[in-house]
Amino acid sequence: QVQLVESGGGLVQAGGSLRLSCAASARTFGTYAMGWFRQAPGKEREIVAAINWSGRRTYYADSVKGRFTISRDNAKNMVYLQMNSLKPEDTAVYYCAADLDANIMDVVTTETRYDRWGQGTQVTVSS
After folding, report:
1. According to the model, what pLDDT value does residue 4 have?
2. pLDDT at position 26, please?
3. Which string of DSSP letters, residue by residue, matches the chain?
4. pLDDT for the residue numbered 105
5. Quick one: which of 54, 107, 117, 123 is 20 to 30 A from 46 by CA?
């Protein structure tokens, strides 16, 4: 029933910016903890950022802290990842994910807690 669709990926030069979007088809989106993950070639999937129901609590991986910003608009069933000062090391497939049974203050950083995943969007940063 819950579908997640990412968009906004593409090719960008180092130092540039991209904004990823994730659209959720669910009336109860406002009660989901959400996260962004990425998987680079030859590497395992890793968490990038996470956000609670209201958007007031967030988590960022050390590698993106200060450069990326996660946000959400519950009225539009959308979650975003603003990526600034992009580096070639950021090249990966980016996925959004939803934890359907999270509580109000939960910022979910454990991959296995997430219940639904999008198909991913490719981000390529050239040097």
Report:
1. 96
2. 82
3. ---EEEE--EEEETT--EEEEEEE--TTGGG-EEEEEEE-TTS--EEEEEE-SSSS-EEE-TTTTTTEEEEEEGGGTEEEEEE-S--GGG-EEEEEEEETT--TT-----GGG--EE---EEEEEE-
4. 93
5. 54
Contacts with 70 (C-beta within 8 Å, 6 or more apart), sequence order: 34, 36, 48, 49, 50, 51, 58, 60, 79, 80, 81, 82
Q: Tens of pLDDT along 82-108?
A: 999 999 999 999 999 999 999 999 999
**Residue given tokens 């950022």 in the structure block:** 49
Distance CA 119, CA 95 (A): 7
The token pair that represents 90 in the structure block = 């950021």
Alpha-carbon dihedral sign for residues 101, 107, 110, 115: positive
Q: What tokens does 78 get?
A: 């959308």
Q: Give the pLDDT confidence of 68-88 residue by residue, as tens digits.
A: 999 999 999 999 999 999 999
